[in-house]
Design brief:
The chain is an alpha+beta fold. It is built from 11 helices and 18 strands.
Length: 390
């Protein structure tokens, strides 16, 4: 097995006046290192388009998950989808990106804008083979993956952005490629890149989208482990064992909580240097311990991280809050959301008397819920999660 992984992120905006999006993205994992990503675009907008695109992506991804060949899946969906008698086009178009063992990618494209492929921070003109399946023109590509490869799939709402406003004929695909190339070099993660592309499309539409617009970005990168220590162990005799396991792990190390930080400092034989400046009023200040990448307060900080994680899984509207600020929650978010691929939690079960006040919110009473909630969010981001309790 190689040391690569796929970072996948997507975002959609709806046609103005529609509550449902006519595009749909479905992601199915096949083991630890293979994924099937399907982006389907239903004809028109609203409820009908939403149903068609959802059915298309679900049928394809389900068949792929059962091990059927790409050609069989495409043949089935092509034969199933009708042709609009008025426009003479299929009721749903689709793009399939099949990542195999993080080594190879198969791309199947049917009437969606061509997938943009960035390699070595240049636009890569990858080979395509034209197939005729059930009378439909389908493009197929098989490419060996490299570190820092970036694939950008989209619905036609992206290149149609700005028609009659900023552009006579929309935002050309080559211009979108140049736009994404400049962003990819800055090191943003896949979700942020997809968000920036769709937000720019929204601007080109004058914030009145004339079509559903969806972008799905896949970045190939090396695996990066991050370790989090949260809370002291239930049994004090386990302090050294917990610290030994935590610090022996490869990757960056985050410690959350005052008591936990004190135990870690004693174990390392180092001092804790607490910052006296608040970066913001709703997150406690951070501290420093030599040999530790980040030291923060516990429950309040992790609660804020969960708030950001839930938003990042949705519209990603809070990115500017955690993407650039220097408070503890923002720093944890950047490490977990953007840098980490494998996250190891070391969670102590000791009860903090300060958190047992019945007048406090429930998140202050049940620390374990915070870990479970954050772990679930991170899994949905495609991270590998391991939780060890002490």
């Amino acid at each position: 097995m190689n040391n690569l992984c796929a970072d996948i992120g997507w975002k959609s905006i709806n046609h103005e006046g529609e509550e449902l999006c006519g595009d749909h993205v479905d992601i199915v994992n096949q083991g630890d290192n293979s994924q099937v990503i399907v982006l389907a675009d239903g004809l028109g907008s609203g409820v009908k388009a939403s149903i068609l695109s959802t059915l298309t992506s679900k049928i394809i991804s389900t068949m792929m998950a059962e091990g059927l060949k790409l050609e069989d899946c495409v043949s089935t969906i092509a034969a199933t989808l009708p042709i609009c008698s008025v426009r003479g086009v299929a009721y749903s178009t689709f793009t399939i990106i099949h990542i195999i063992e993080n080594r190879t990618v198969e791309i199947i494209q049917y009437d969606n804008p061509k997938v943009i492929f960035l390699r070595n921070f240049n636009v890569y003109n990858y080979p395509t083979k034209e197939l005729n399946i059930e009378g439909k023109k389908v493009l197929k590509s098989i490419i060996n993956l490299q570190e820092d490869d970036c694939l950008i799939a989209m619905s036609d709402g992206c290149p149609h952005a700005g028609i009659g406003l900023a552009y006579n004929f929309g935002w050309k695909l080559e211009d979108i490629a140049d736009f994404m190339l400049s962003l990819a070099q800055a090191g943003y993660n896949a979700k942020t890149l997809a968000t920036m592309l769709v937000d720019q499309c929204d601007k080109e539409y004058g914030h009145h989208p004339g079509d559903d617009a969806t972008a799905c970005v896949i970045k190939v990168r090396k695996r990066e482990p991050v370790n989090i220590l949260f809370g002291p162990p239930r049994n004090r005799d386990d302090n050294n064992r917990m610290m030994s396991l935590f610090f022996s792990k490869e990757g960056k190390h985050i410690i959350c909580g005052g008591t936990t930080s004190s135990i870690a400092a004693r174990y390392l034989g180092k001092e804790i240097k607490v910052s006296l400046s608040f970066e913001r009023g709703d997150v406690p200040p951070i501290a420093e311990i030599e040999g530790v990448d980040l030291v923060t307060e516990g429950v309040i900080t992790i609660s804020k991280v969960i708030e950001y994680a839930k938003d990042a899984l949705g519209q990603n509207k809070l990115y500017e809050k955690w993407g650039f600020q220097r408070d503890g929650a923002s720093l944890i978010c950047r490490l977990l959301f953007e840098e980490a691929t494998d996250i190891n939690f070391y969670v102590g079960r000791a009860v903090n008397p300060a958190h047992q006040n019945p007048d406090l919110p429930i998140t202050f009473n049940i620390k374990m819920n915070l870990v479970e909630e954050l772990s679930e969010c991170l899994k949905k981001m495609g991270k590998r999660i391991k939780v060890s309790y002490f």
